[in-house]
Design goal:
- The protein has 5 helices and 2 strands; from the N terminus they run αααααββ.
- With 112 residues, the chain is mainly alpha-helical.
- A hairpin with a 2-residue loop joins β1 and β2.
- The protein has a two-stranded antiparallel sheet with strand order 1-2.
- The chain is 44% helix and 11% strand.
- α3 packs across α4.
- It is globular, with a radius of gyration of 14 Å.
- The N terminus is likely disordered.
């Protein structure tokens, strides 16, 4: 169990989460890359600022629909989520905003 404690402490997603999940650390990092405040992200999501604050602090576990909206909103604005070598991260797209899903990343979860 020590490994999962280390992963949680470092902000990495625990093993077993699907491709359309996002950790609080990834949300904070993505927001920083976009230079958005909690209020900016909340406004784009159509949810309250308390939702963003609670999720990013680890104080709440939102429903999968809210997570999907959060992730989709960030991706539509150029954020790319990665899982290289088992370590989750974020970066901005080199091709600009709204690039969509790359061919190699397509799966039944993001085929919408």
């Amino acid at each position: 169990m020590a490994g999962s404690d280390e992963a949680a402490a470092s902000g990495l997603q625990p093993d077993g989460l699907g491709p359309n999940t996002i950790s609080p650390a990834q949300s904070r990092a993505a927001r920083a890359l976009l230079n958005w405040s909690e209020a900016d992200l909340a406004g784009r999501l159509g949810l309250g600022e308390a939702f963003v604050r609670d999720f990013e602090s680890g104080g709440s576990v939102p429903g999968s629909g809210q997570i999907e909206v959060l992730r989709s909103t960030l991706m539509a604005n150029g954020v790319v989520f990665s899982d290289a070598g088992g370590e989750s991260g974020v970066r901005l797209s080199r091709q600009g905003q709204g690039e969509g899903t790359r061919l190699g990343d397509l799966n039944t979860e993001n085929d919408r």
